[in-house]
């Protein structure tokens, strides 16, 4: 009898609601920038209502693109992003190098192209 009771509750455990792309209404809570060197910048972003860590990493990339353009430069290279979620608040600590010319490496971004894509998706920059 106990096994039957346990099995009958198992479908309820699978009913946890997970937001879908259609329910994704992000709350972007701001960007803090810290210039570590002339061409090295740290971006701390926070948001709620993210579905995955990629959502907050995208927010950090948009911040990097906007900051790069504000500095009058055109390119950035991603060095690292640390993402954390606590009590529904997602944060990312990302570091990028910024430069006027396309830097070497595989994780480079064209700031103008990325900033335009961010605007199209409704993701704020700096």
What is the general shape?
globular
Strand content: 35-45%
What is the ordering of alpha helices and beta strands? HEEHEEEH
Instruction: Report the structural category.
Output: alpha+beta
Distance between the termini: 60 Å
Reading side by side through the largest sheet, how are the strands ordered?
A: 1-2-4-3-5
Task: Characterize the structure shown.
With 126 residues, the chain is α+β, with helices and mostly antiparallel strands. It is 33% helix and 37% strand. The chain has three helices and five strands, in the order αββαβββα. The protein has helices spanning 2-13, 53-70, 111-121; strands spanning 27-37, 40-48, 75-86, 89-99, 108-110. A five-stranded antiparallel sheet has the order 1-2-4-3-5. Helix 2 (53-70) crosses helix 3. It is globular.
Question: Could you list some keywords that capture this structure?
Answer:
alpha+beta, five-stranded antiparallel beta sheet, single chain, 126 residues
SSE layout and pairing:
Blueprint: H1 2-13, E1 27-37, E2 40-48, H2 53-70, E3 75-86, E4 89-99, E5 108-110, H3 111-121
Antiparallel strand pairs: 1-2, 2-4, 3-4, 3-5
Helix pairs in contact: 2-3
Give the structure's gist in a few sentences.
The chain is 33% helix and 37% strand.
